[in-house]
Design brief:
Keywords: Membrane, Transmembrane, Transmembrane helix. This protein has 11 helices and no strands. The chain has about 270 residues and is mainly α.
């Protein structure tokens, strides 16, 4: 998945704005341009350009910190079924999503610049942009642990990597796999809610499936997980004696693999 890059602060005006060039050594028989001892060296201060990268980094850090802190609070409320007194769970849930949105926006701004964004088709293929849209949609739909877990884990991975937290760095692959399995569980929940006509679950399901299909095509981890699931289901589906089921399953499996191969080798 895409991550925000920590940008080192630029030099300030006081450190690099001053010209410190040393005069060339005098050659024998050549006139020198050294100033008299009583003269004062003139130095010109130049204002350094505003450090926008440092500002983006601070926004990125604040966003992930907000997502991690309020995500922890919301997860505690939802996992232990605590009463939503004073709307603490609802507020924390949405602040965690908002923090993730801010951090991902800072990442996108650092990578492309908000004034030079690529076409919408290219944007939709980026996982960060997909999560930005989902963060807004999830804010106005039903609360779920499975919706907030990806943002929480992404913030945990980024902050753990930045702060060199050994426990997080050691389990990066495991945490990334949790995000992938969490998304599969969320698809199942949205399917069930759609079948029972719960609010806007059908719209959420369609949107999430579109993004998940793009990840299968463009994201290696999601594609590998989906391929492993297809391989496991292949043996069970082929046991079904209905020739139509086997025919359509074979066509579907072949189509997915061909699309994955073509998108990754263009």
């Amino acid at each position: 998945m895409s991550t925000a890059t920590q940008v080192q602060p630029q030099e300030t005006a006081g450190s690099k704005g001053v010209s410190d060039s040393t005069p060339h050594e005098a050659q024998p028989g050549m006139p020198t341009n050294k100033m008299a001892a009583g003269d004062k060296m003139k130095k010109k201060l130049v204002r350094a350009p505003p450090n926008t990268n440092q500002m983006k980094y601070k926004v990125w850090l604040a966003g992930h910190t907000t997502s991690l802190v309020f995500g922890t609070i919301s997860l505690i409320f939802q996992v232990f079924w605590l009463p939503n007194k004073f709307y603490i769970n609802s507020i924390s849930y949405r602040l965690a999503l908002l923090g993730g949105f801010i951090a991902l926006t800072a990442t996108f701004s650092h990578k492309f610049g908000l004034h030079f964004l690529p076409p919408i088709a290219t944007l939709l293929s980026h996982q960060n942009f997909q999560y930005m849209i989902l963060a807004i949609v999830w804010c106005f739909t039903f609360k779920s642990v499975f919706k907030i877990v990806p943002f929480f884990l992404i913030s945990l991975l980024h902050l753990g990597s930045m702060k060199k937290v050994h426990a997080v760095e050691k389990r990066q692959d495991f945490l990334a796999s949790l995000i992938a399995y969490d998304e599969l569980a969320l698809i199942l929940i949205l399917v069930l809610r759609t079948l029972f006509f719960r609010n806007s679950s059908g719209f959420q399901l369609v949107l999430f499936l579109i993004f998940y299909w793009l990840r299968i095509l463009y994201n290696t981890e999601t594609g590998n997980l989906f391929g492993a699931i297809v391989d496991r289901l292949d043996g069970e589906v082929m046991k079904i004696k209905n020739p139509k089921v086997q025919h359509y399953w074979s066509k579907t499996r072949q189509f997915v693999r061909e699309k994955q191969w073509s998108e990754r080798h263009e």
